[in-house]
Amino acid sequence: MKKTVLFVLVSLISSTSFLNGIPTKERNVIQNTLLDLFGKHNRPRHNLFSDVGKIVTSATKYMLNLYQYSLGSELQNINNPTINLKNISKKVNFADTVVSLLNNGYVPRPNTTDESGEMYFDVSSNYDIEKIIETNLQIFLDVTYKTVPLNKFRLEVFKIVVPKKKYILLDSKIIMTSVSQWHEFNVLEALLSWVKYSETNNGILIVCKSLQQEAILVENCGVVGFKGSKDYQPFLVSFYQSSKNEEFFALKAPDFDSTSRVAQHQYFLDNKFKTSTSARLPKRFTRGIEDNDFLKAAATLAEKNNFVQSKLISKRSKNNKISDCGKHLLYVSFKDIGWSDWIIAPDGYITSYCEGDCSFPLESNLNATNHAILQALVHTIFPKKIPKPCCAPNKLNAMSILFFDDRNNVVMQEIPNMIVHQCGCQ
């Protein structure tokens, strides 16, 4: 049902003139329905943003790179190669939502401290999260800011349990100081506890030590904090699976479900044909139908009357305007919908739609189901009783969108079943 609603809605809103002329109430209904299909409770409040195109942060750059990668760009061709995107394919393949969080060091909160290396991330969200796959802290080390004469040192990341009293080590790495670059730390354990018990979120502490365990101020190690350049400020990246899209991961390339084919066929046999037409057929045909040998019985009847093939060929030759079931282009512009203030990419997308004739005989390029072939054949025999099969999507692809949420976090979301890949008679 949702798929049908989506194609009707995008057909309407793809016309700018129609959308501009529609009353506010109906326009809101269209937008709210699309938001529901996108898995959102409401649209981000655009008054929180200035000019979307001018907001450039380290997290924004990372997410833009990630978005380009999700579209098939090679890592070496992505802009800003200093961002660490190693081993990213596994994360992207098993996540449908990626959220980046900037360090909110200036945000007033309980238990705040002025401790050097302290960072805070607001991880509260309204996303329907089924599973958190991975959460990483991205830290940039700028060697031009390093004041200690060390070629290497250790960076440790702690979860702050009680400020200035109790900490839990999350991850640590020995860092080479010869080059400025991003470094990634695993902080999944912290995020899991913060999502479950938000009041325990007292932030993260970054500690810099020499290999001899001597403490060094993180600023002297060259770590860029939340007061540094926006291009290099620390941020979190979380990879989620949402509860709404469970079937998306079980079926990356959507196709027909053989079980549903059988169920549809059986329903047709049990309910449609037997109640409306079997009384008109000779017993030798109804016996076959009751035995579920439906196709054979219908084909025999068609052959006996000797009209199916010649009648169809004659009809098609007289009316060349009837095109077979196929895919047609339909472009949806987020600007026309009024969403360009919070959707970063894409500007719009080609969703396409399915339209065309599904008359017997169904050619192989029409991608017909067994049930559709059967129904098309019976329609030629009983056109007033049995309708033609419908031309509809039988393969749908996901689409990725990059957007700002209510807290100015950049989010990439994979939305299943949004783009028609293939049409067929069903």
TrEMBL record:
Residues 313-426 form the TGF-beta family profile domain. It holds the Pfam family TGFb_propeptide. It comes from the Eukaryota. It is found in: Secreted. Keywords: Disulfide bond, Glycoprotein, Growth factor, Secreted, Signal. InterPro entries: Cystine-knot_cytokine, TGF-b_C, TGF-b_propeptide, TGF-beta-rel, TGFb_CS. Belongs to the TGF-beta family. This is Bone morphogenetic protein 5-8a. It comes from Hydra vulgaris (Hydra). The lineage of its organism: Eukaryota, Metazoa, Cnidaria, Hydrozoa, Hydroidolina.
